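Hi R.,

Here's the input for the S-adenosylmethionine complex you asked about:
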Amino acid sequence: MRRFGAGIDRSELTPDQLAWKGRVSQAFDRASDRYDQYAHVQRQVANGLSHWLVECLQGGSTKNDFEVGSALEIGCGTGFFTSLLVETFPLTHWTVTDVSPAMVESVEKRLTGNSKLKFQVADGEYLELPKTFDLICSNLSFQWFHDLPAALPRLMQHLNPGGWLVFATLDSNNFSKVYARYPFLKPSPCSTDSLQVSLRVLEDASSIQRVHRETIMRSFPDLREFLVSLKRIGAGTPAKEFNRRKSELLAALRQSRDAQVDEEVDYRLLFVAAQKPPTEP
Ligand SMILES: C[S@@+](CC[C@H](N)C(=O)[O-])C[C@H]1O[C@@H](n2cnc3c(N)ncnc32)[C@H](O)[C@@H]1O
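And here is the predicted structure with S-adenosylmethionine in place:
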């Protein structure tokens, strides 16, 4: 496994933002051992995204005649999505990355012995790989980017002409049912704006863009179990702007437990595919 490249430039981040990124990566480090046991939604989304990705690349044709010589995965986790990608594109040379060193170790163990795979610890938001790819993809990591609209054009620069950027992330109305019941849990509205700006950025930069939305519903015995489920997979780091008040949280946990009604949780997903124009202008 290789560590961060020497030239990674994250200098535009403030100390607070860097500290937040550190907390995100450490939370996923800590969760890497138990991730497979609890990441049911992530596994389901990985399946859906792998099929959708093929549909996008085939562009309506029923044949698998597209060629993907080299590809990059961002935020591989323990490798659910990676395994599906490698099955789907067995001839492709993959660079498989994650910001969490422990996650990269896990995926390396899962897919050991495949000479077409290279593993690297990297912040997908500030890639300094001196390479371009035919495909860049990611399942459920871009919601952890500090500034997605700014990151997308940088990622497009890592695509070969005609190359694809395909990812699933959490949509702007993710967990809206939960937030309707517990408004204080809601992060500030900037993530909504950020996704809209991101889609506009891709519209400007690419010739083809597809978007697909879906919702996965899950029930939890109470609010506490839902919050614990996020923590178990490493996704419990609060948003940067989140000012959770302890007394409100404790009251909500009590209220949810006493209600003895399941908490219905809505995972709202956004799938995006963008293609770099086949010839540079
Ligand atoms: C919810 S998990 C998804 C993992 C995997 N793609 C899957 O389908 O199970 C999110 C992953 O994104 C990674 N991640 C978070 N921020 C990242 C960043 N800036 N760059 C690269 N990976 C990041 C985390 O370490 C974690 O492994």
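One thing worth noting: Confidence is low (pLDDT under 50) at residues 2-8.

Cheers,
M.
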